[in-house]
Amino acid sequence: MGFDYIKHQGFTLAEVLITLGIIGIVAAMTMPSVIGNARDKQIIARV
Q: What pTM was estimated for this model as a whole?
């Protein structure tokens, strides 16, 4: 029974903040493209 392993449950605050930061950066990079495509389709639909 040599080693006692401690079960790690949940995430630390740092892990959650890093994950949310990465998601925020990716969202900030993709939103202009999504908004631009929506505007283009809206203009085409009006014509």
A: 0.61
